[in-house]
Amino acid sequence: MTGVNGDPSAHRDVADELTLGLLPEERLLDHPLIRGTVIRTEPCLEAYLEFKRRLCFGLNGFSLLAESGMGRKSAMISIRSQLFRDFPSLAVAEITLRRDAPHTTRARWQALLSDLGHRALKGSNEDLRSRVLWMLEERLYGSPLPHLVLFIRNVEYLDGDLTRILLDLSDALNRKGFRMFVVSCGQIARFGLNLSTVGVEAANDMRSLLGSPFALRALNSEEDLAVILEEIDTQIIGPEDPRHWGESFLPKAYQNGFSLKDQSARLLAAMADIPQGTVTTHTVFDSIRWVLVTSSGNDQSSFMLPERIWNDALLIAQSARFVPLLENSDGHNDAR
Q1: ∠ CA(278), CA(279), CA(285), 5° rounding?
Q2: What is the mean pLDDT of the chain?
Q3: Alpha-carbon distance 143 to 79, whole Å?
Q4: Lowest CB count within 10 Å: 130, 177, 291, 312, which one?
Q5: How far is CA 294 from each of CA 227, 249, 259, 281, 287, rounded to the nearest angstrom?
Q6: To 10 degrees, the CA torsion angle through 8, 13, 19, 20?
Q7: Is residue 152, in this structure, part of any structural domain at all?
Q8: Which runs of E-coded beta strand occur in the chain?
């Protein structure tokens, strides 16, 4: 497994020059684990395999839904990265839906053009439609395969009008011998509420476009956690810094055999003690970061983690996420 938010081993001339004079605390902000490099989890892998099955079986779409904090956006990055590895010739496009969605047909076409990277936003609705279609066809003409994978972020903001536009594009591509497969991700509660309020016809159109939903599960086993912790133990920071991610925080401890992977059972037990219910994926990663950063000042060859450090880390991570999650429940904040 490797980090998938860009290649961590890729040469970074400009970044390396810029970080030469940084203080240790500033260098910490450039650490892959701190800056948010995505680690592919077991739930992400399960989601990718289901997406791949549907794509290869000729189905229409794959809709990845999850509660806030479960890492659906990171899962989309992981799916897209693995897609490029398994199907490097496949044509891909991506659009992002927003809360302040455009309310006119013209504005919808312009938003699609903008997401696809086209700057010419003037003209009639038919002109705009033709440009969007051409942008998609251009990707397909550059591929030996007749499939286009369209990624849709924040699908909970999809409405009936945009659904019809996307179905129209899919039909137009079909008439030219192409096939559009939609991969979407969204917040499950908002998506369900949206689907229940758009009307029967629009809801059926959405199901036709998106395919059946797939729920991204929580991290809930020792194996799930061991995969993540082993990645932090073994992933190299980059060509200019050959240390492993975890080792850079606790070099003396790692040299003497310390391993985060050995902590998977303790972390799972601490998660089971959390009274509020399911621990989100975000909370797990935040707790790992907290443990590594706070422990770095105590590094020594005989280092051992304190007995209840994972319990403390989870509670601190949950409290740090508490306000954003409250805001998210009212629809005012989009937790990653």
Answers
A1: 160
A2: 87
A3: 19
A4: 177
A5: 22, 9, 16, 20, 10
A6: 130
A7: yes
A8: 61-66, 91-96, 147-153, 179-187, 213-215, 236-238, 241-244
**pLDDT tens digits, one per residue of 69-81:** 999 999 999 999 9
CB 287, CB 314: distance < 8 Å: yes
How far is the CA of 175 from the CAs of 51, 131, 168, 205, in angstroms?
A: 24, 17, 11, 19
Say whether both 186 and 120 belong to one domain. yes
Radius of gyration in angstroms for the set of CA atoms belonging to the chain, rounded to a whole number: 22
Phi-psi map region of 123: left, alpha, beta (phi>0 left; psi -120 to 50 alpha): left
Burial (CB < 10 A; 0-12, 13-18, 19+), residue 86, is: exposed
pTM of the model: 0.84
Phi, psi angle pair for 333, to nearest 5°: -145, 135
CA 165-63-101 angle, 5° bins: 45
54 in the same domain as 196: yes
Residue whose entry in the numeric block shows the structure tokens 């990277």 = 117
Q: Which domain holds residue 168?
A: 42-215
Q: What percentage of the chain's residues is helix, strand, coil (to nearest 5)?
A: 55, 10, 35
